Structures are given as C-alpha cells and as structure tokens.
Amino acid sequence: MKAEVLIVGAGPTGLALALALHKQKIPFRIIEKNSGPGTASRAMIVHGRILEHYRQMGFAEMIIEQGNKVEDVQIFMDGNLKAKMHIGDIGENLSRFPYILSLPQDIHEEILVRVLKERGVEVEWNTQLMSFKESDHHVQVVIEKEGITEENNFVFLCGCDGAHSSVRKNLGFQFEGGTYAQIFYVADVKSSIPSPGISGNMFREGFCLTIPLPNGNVRLIGIFPEEVVKDGIPSELAPVIPFIEKNVGIKIEQVNWYSPYKVHHRISDHFRKGRIFLAGDAGHIHSPAGGQGMNTGIGDAVNLGWKLAAVMLEKADEKILDTYETERMAFAKMLISTTDRAFNSVVGKGVETRLFKNAVIPYALPRLIAFPRLRKKLYKKVSQTDIKYRDSILSEGQIGQIHGGDRLPWVTTENSDNHEPLKSMDWQFHIYGQDLPELRAIAESSAIPLYVFKWKKEMDAVGIKENSIMLIRPDGHIALAITNRELVKAQKYLDEFKIYSINS
Ligand SMILES: Cc1cc2nc3c(=O)[nH]c(=O)nc-3n(C[C@H](O)[C@H](O)[C@H](O)COP(=O)(O)OP(=O)(O)OC[C@H]3O[C@@H](n4cnc5c(N)ncnc54)[C@H](O)[C@@H]3O)c2cc1C
Is the CB of 212 under 6 A from ligand 1? Predict the structure, then answer.
C-alpha cells in the first residue's frame, strides 16, 4: 500500500505519531536522519496523560515496567535536608496512572521503536528530508538516504523534526520567544554514595536536581555556578564537581555523559500550512520546569494522528484538521507561560525568587501538598490530565462541571474503568445512567458504539452527573456533553462534522 503520510523525525513525537497512525491503519513512512534511536537520556519524566494515550495504543505496561515510579521528592538547602514530600499516588482516583514515572528518553524511544517493529513498521534510519513543495493534491518531497536521492509524493507531511526543524524554516514560520540567561548542565554520573531519590538542591552558588536512573547511576540537571562559567562554558563536568559533591551529597566516581545547554522558550506562529503540519519541539520549546516538553510533543502527535486518519478515511469533515493548530497552540502557549513563571521563581535573582526558594519550596510546599485538594490540583496540572479544549469548534455542551473539550474524567466501573473502551481510539457515546434507545439509533447511524455505565456516587466526585451523555473523541476528550433532553444536539453534531466511526 502506498504511504500517504511522511513523518520526518523519529524522536518521541514522530514515533508517537507513527504509532497513532498505525493504530488507525493509515499507510505512512517515518524517516530519521540519524542512524538509530537517541542515545541521550534527556527527558526523564513520563506523565499520566501520556500513559493514558499509551494504554489506548496498547503498550503502557511496557513503558511502566522500564521506569521508576517517583515516590518522594526531597528539598536540600546548602546540603541540609529541609523537606521530604511523599508524591506516590498523588493523583489517586483521577487516573489509572496517578503517579509520575521516571524513564530516560533513550530507553523510552527504544521501546517505541521496538513496538513499531513488532507491529511491522521500520523506521527508515540515515534518511533525511532535503526539500519539499506543496501542490493542490499532495506534497512533493526530496529524500536522501546514503547518497541516494528519492523524489516522492505524499498526501500529508508531518514535521516532527525537533527544535531546529527544517520543515518549520522552509514554511517561513517565525519561532518567537527567548533564551534564558542561565547556562545549564545535564550529566549522567556514577556515584559511590547512592543518590537520595529525586532531590532539588539549592545552594548559594546554584541549583542542581538529582534523579536516580534505573541502572543505579544518577542524572544531574543544574545551573552552572557563575564563577565556573565566567571565562566560558567548560568542556567537562570537572569544574562543577566540587560544588555538586559539597551540596548534593553524592561522590562522583565516573561521568558517563555531560552536556551544557541553554534553555529556550519559543513557539512557532503556526503549526499547519495546508498539507504540512508541525508537532513537538518543531513547534514549541519550553523550560524544563515540570518535565513537560517531550510529553507535550507526544500529546500533539495523538491529537494530530486521529484527525489525519479521520479525514483521510473520509470519516470526518476536513475542517477538523484546523482544530489541531487551535487546540495544541492554545495549550503550548499556556504551558510556555506557566513553565516560564515556575522556572523564573527558581532561577531568578529578585525578592520573589528568594522568597520562593527560602520559604515556599522548603516550608510551604510540603505542607500544602499534604492537603488532598491541593495534591489533586497539582497532579492534574502537572500530569496534563487537565488539558481542556473548551474553545475548540469541536467542543460543545456542558453538564455540571463537565464541558465539551475536557478530558473524559476517569472513574472505575463495575468491570474495569470508563477509559477501557477508549482503547479503540474511535468515537464513542457514553451514558452514565439509563440506556436510551433514541441515542442508540443516532449512534448506529454513524456506526458509533454506545457504552452505558451504571451511575454511582463516586462519579459525582469527578463531575459526572447521573444520566450524563457524552460523545467522546478518539483521543479521549469530550466532544459533546448533553442531558437526555438534548439528544437532537447529538445528531446535529455528527451531521455538522460528518462524523462516522473511524474503525468501521
Ligand atoms: C539536554 C536536554 C535535556 C532535556 N530534558 C528534558 C526533560 O527533563 N523533560 C522534558 O520533557 N524534556 C526535556 N528535554 C526536551 C526533550 O528532549 C524534547 O522535548 C523532546 O526530545 C522533543 O521530541 P521531538 O520528537 O519533538 O524532537 P526531537 O527529540 O528533537 O526529535 C527530532 C528528530 O528529527 C530528526 N530530524 C531533524 N531533521 C530531520 C530531517 N530533515 N530529516 C530526517 N530527520 C530529521 C532529528 O535527528 C531528531 O531525531 C530536554 C532536552 C535536552 C536537549
């Protein structure tokens, strides 16, 4: 079958898009200019919302098995323990994955490549996109593999080609934003003293975060002390080691990998032009606060994947493709501003930073986290389970606190949980209460399955009212939220967007 989509880049975003398109049986190719998966451990955190998507695609357990659940976070000031916060199941009752998972990006990518391979898809390594041109019916591309040039046509081109995206540059999009003044280092080291779990270490000369790695080594992410970088960025970790050993409580025996870097916050002015899309770092880059960068790229991929599939299979109106940019750009902008604030609170120099570092982080935060409501709020924000697309043209209706555009709240049901049917990655109606033959008839006209869940009191706690009716999108967001007196809206929605089951 001829590939209709070309994915450029096999980082986490491109690999997730490949898995999403494969799930929808869309023929595609994925090319990567490097010779194999990434070898640097870069992004260390996988959040709950991404594990929910991985469950939909059938490999969440493989990722979880290789990672470590973050149980505790400790705060040290000048080498002294100031606070220990138990994170564990911080999002209990909010998701099947109520925790933060730590997994190095290289292992993560390697698993995604393996899953694709098991499903019959090979990443084309050593293969680079050289140029492209869009016409009315396709995108003409020039690809080069080991000196051999290929010209080909695709229906859609997806630039998942990272922060230096040539796809973005060729489209002429601006990548506005800025660069933080601080210079960072990231390193994987072997320590003769075990690292005390995840810890944030603040000291007079700088800041260093430690994360234990599954192989017993320690990941360090820090800001260089000013005196170390005053004459230039060191080519080795050596000049920083005395500061680390004095304040972080480890003894470095061996440096396995070290990289200095600057942190940028930028966003492309568009994520789409005609048949060409940008996803992941190609479209937006953030400060590392909250470990959101990679997770957001994977979220982009899932959002784009089902929309491309639905349009290509003629199971939805083409206008749904416009919602990829509006939904994901709104989220990326919000993320850039919140991670920017969080980042500046820790690395800035003003009174606010001193207050944050000396009072909020060591004293107030551990106490606040002990409150169940605040724990829940924090989990929802950080895990990306709170993502809402309420302003999207695809989002309609409201029942109680639940609006069209929200992620389907997670609840346990008699046999499993209400996210179990989302594994189909297809449209579905949910009723939380009494079955309705009239709705069944509407659903059947578009071959959309209808799931009836017996309502129980616990559902109220996550905002699901008795007899709520929801039309759920393939990515698990609510398209339409209505009562049993508003069934006409369900038919109207399906007609407006020409929705038909993707899998039928
Ligand atoms: C030092 C460091 C530490 C980080 N730490 C964190 C963290 O703690 N948490 C977090 O969430 N994020 C972190 N990040 C960011 C995270 O790594 C990125 O957000 C993530 O890799 C983005 O994935 P992506 O697939 O969009 O892009 P990338 O991972 O950059 O993948 C893009 C791929 O496209 C390929 N490519 C580019 N051009 C072409 C072409 N023309 N043809 C073919 N292939 C091409 C590239 O070779 C690359 O493999 C960190 C980044 C760095 C550099």
Answer: no
